[in-house]
Predict the 3D structure of the following.
Amino acid sequence: MSNKELHFISGVGWRYDTEHSMLRRLEGHDYKGRSIYQITITLAERGKPRLGTLMKDVNGKAIVVLSPLGERVRDCWLQIETRHPGVSSIALQIMPDHLHGVLFVKHEQAVHLGKMISGFKIGCSHAWWELEPEVCAPFCSPFSSPFSSPNYNSAHGTSAHGTSAHGTAQGTSAQGTAHGAPLLPHSRGAKGPSLFSPGYHDSVLMGKGQLRNMVSYVLDNPRRAMIKREHPDLFRIVSNLTVGGRSFAAIGNRWLLNRPMRLQVRCHNNTSAENLRLIACQKEYFLQRGRMGAVVVSPCISPGEKEIARAALAAGLPLIVVLENGFPPLYKPPGRYFEACADGTLLMLAPWPHHTEHRMITRRQCVELNAMAASVSTDPWTMELERDVETVYK
C-alpha cells in the first residue's frame, strides 16, 4: 500500500503524488563509459550553510566564501581526478548547503560513476567529523580520516545508483541515521552521520552546445541564489492561488493579475503557410500591446503560443504562463524564466501537480489550459479579434 496521497488530475485521471528523487538514473546509459555529467549533491541538513557563506564582493558580485569544511569538500572533489585516472573536473561551485560540479569521464572506468561520488561523499563526511568531532561523538571513537587511505573505495562500495552498499535502496543505513542522514562506518568500526543526503542528481551531456550551458549554470549559482535571497516573494511557490475560481500553484509576480489589461494568446496548432503568417501577425499585435502595458497570457501549448511567449520574455514584457506540469520542491525557474521572475515580469501558474514522466499532453488538457488562460485574461482571444488582427497587421 502506497503512503503517497492520491489526487484526481483533470484530463489525466487518478495519480499518486510524485516523489522527487535524487536516486533516478538515465535508463540504458553506461555510467562507466566516456561521458560528461553535471552533478548536484545536497547536504543532509538542507538549509544549513555548513559549506560557506553567500555574500557580495567589493564589486557587488555574488560569491560564496568557503568555510573550513567547504574548503575540505573542494579538496575532496579535486582528489576525484587523482583517485580515478581518466576523470577530470571541468567545473565546481560549492554553495552553502549543496554543490554543483561537472565531471568528464574521458574513457572507460573500472567503477560506476556512483562509486566515485560515494567515495567523495564518504571522504567529505570524515573531514566533517574531524573538524566538528562533536557531531559524531555519540557514534564514533577517535579516528583518522579514511579518505587519506588508499583502500577507502573498496571499504565503502556503492550500488549501481550511487547509494551506499551498506544501506537500503533508499540509501539509509540499516543500523540507523543521524542528522537526517545515513550513518557511515569509519575505518575503526564506529559510525558517524553522513554530511550529504542519500544519492545525487546527474544530468548527462547529450548534444552540442550543452557543455557551455552546463558550466554556465554551475558557475552562475551564486548570482541566482543572491537574486532569490533579495526577491524571496518572487521565487516562493504559492500552493493555492485562486484565479477565476480555479486553484493554481504559482511562482513569480502575482501582482500581474491586478494589471487592467491581460490578453489571452491562442494560436492554431498547424504549420501551414497561412497559419505561420497569422502567428507573425499575432506576435506583432501582442508585442505592441505589451509595450503599452498589457500582460500577455499564454498556455504555451502550440508552437505559435510558445513563440509569442519567448518573444515577450526576450522583450522584457509582462507575461503569465499557464503550464501543464507543476513545480517540484526547491524548484527554480530555468533560463529566461529565472531572469523574468527576478525582474518581476513573469507569473507561472500550474493547475496540476508536478510529474516526472515524459507524457503527451491530452486534448482535454489543452482545452482546459486554453479555458484557464481565458479566465485569467481580461481580453480572451476570439475569432472576431483574430480577423481584426489579421487585417491590421497583415
User: Anything to note?
Assistant: Confidence is low (pLDDT under 50) at residues 1-22, 141-176, 186-190. The longest strand covers residues 35-42. The first helix runs from residue 68 to 83. The radius of gyration is 25 Å.
